[in-house]
Write a structure and sequence with these properties.
By secondary structure, the chain is mainly β. The chain contains 1 helix and 15 strands.
């Protein structure tokens, strides 16, 4: 199948295969988005949610050091989860990341998962900061999901 388009007396020919290829690439790109699933007691999937990712990498976070000099830190990210301010650093990391909260958390949960959705580690915490060791995982992008007080956020973490 060949499509011919005319624009300013120039013929453009597109093969059906090229259009099919573009549609296939688009379909694969949609499948690459991280998703969360919920299952009922029988193991049937009852809910699918595409995860909205916040990047835990900031290009420029200005901090004042010394005599008022401005230094750009690229390995620290600050955000809010519910009423709590949270800081994640270093990101990208080659080993351990620290997640620092504005106030002490009484009942929090975190999990690290791959982009494919496999949970690599998870735990609960009751403190103002947690340290997550990623040194045993290969370089790549991972998802850090933190849940506390019924509020949940997910950030991308890059392992060098």
């Amino acid at each position: 199948m060949t499509f011919i388009f005319k624009h300013n007396s120039i013929n453009f020919k597109f093969a059906g295969v090229a259009i099919l290829l573009l549609l296939t690439v688009s379909a694969f790109a949609q499948q690459a988005l991280p998703r969360q699933y919920e299952y009922d007691a029988m193991g049937n999937r009852v809910f699918r949610k595409v995860v909205r990712l916040k990047s835990a990498i900031s290009d420029t976070i200005p901090t004042t050091q010394g005599l008022g000099t401005l230094q750009q830190q690229k390995d620290t990210f600050s955000d809010k989860i519910g009423n709590y301010a949270v800081t994640i650093y270093p990101n990208p990391t080659s080993g351990t990341i620290t997640v620092q909260f504005e106030h002490s958390v009484t009942n929090g949960q975190y999990k690290i998962s791959s982009l494919a959705g496999h949970i690599l580690q998870q735990s609960t915490f009751s403190s103002s900061s947690i340290k997550v060791d990623l040194s045993s995982y290969p370089a790549g992008i991972y998802l850090l999901n933190v849940k506390m007080d019924g509020v949940e956020e997910t950030w991308k973490i890059i392992k060098k």
